[in-house]
């Protein structure tokens, strides 16, 4: 697959990346566990079919110590016993928030309540913001057909 746009050469992309970077930093500084962040980004990227982001976030997760077993089971997290209740709540909110157009009324109250039970205040809003952010990144990469497979850990640092 060839990219429709070379994002690395675009002045607007560089400008937007700085803004995205500020949001990523705020989420990272929120206390939301890094493992949860990566799991959320992987799951949303799987749902949206964003190979570029799946490649990036699985590699970043491995670099941060995530296990192969857990990474292989993200797509089947409901049946897997390797995730904590808090991680499962985050993954459920991620799926509901990513598939928001498929559900009249948006995210069900029970899904929100479960996430709120595990993440309070800034961590909960950081989780919601991360779900929104990764969905935006996925859509950008899918629309512009960014190819997967060549990401190197720390490439965008």
TrEMBL record:
Residues 25-95 form the Carboxymuconolactone decarboxylase-like domain. This is Carboxymuconolactone decarboxylase family protein. PANTHER family: 4-CARBOXYMUCONOLACTONE DECARBOXYLASE FAMILY PROTEIN (AFU_ORTHOLOGUE AFUA_6G11590) (PTHR34846), BLL7811 PROTEIN (PTHR34846:SF7). InterPro entries: AhpD-like, AhpD_core, CMD-like. GO terms for molecular function: peroxiredoxin activity. It comes from Streptomyces qinzhouensis. Pfam families: CMD. Transmembrane segments: none annotated.
């Amino acid at each position: 697959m060839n990219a429709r746009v070379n994002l690395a050469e675009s002045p607007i992309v560089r400008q937007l990346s700085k803004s995205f970077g500020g949001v990523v930093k705020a989420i990272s500084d929120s206390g939301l566990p890094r493992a949860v962040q990566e799991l959320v980004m992987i799951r949303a990227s799987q749902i949206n079919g964003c190979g570029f982001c799946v490649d990036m976030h699985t590699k970043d997760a491995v670099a941060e110590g995530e296990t192969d077993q857990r990474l292989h089971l993200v797509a089947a997290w409901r049946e897997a016993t390797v995730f904590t209740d808090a991680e499962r709540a985050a993954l459920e909110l991620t799926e509901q928030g990513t598939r928001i157009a498929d559900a009249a009324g948006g995210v069900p109250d029970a899904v929100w309540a479960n996430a709120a039970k595990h993440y309070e205040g800034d961590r909960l809003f950081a989780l919601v913001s991360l779900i929104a952010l990764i969905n935006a990144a996925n859509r950008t990469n899918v629309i512009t057909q960014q190819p997967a497979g060549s990401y190197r850990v720390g490439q965008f640092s």
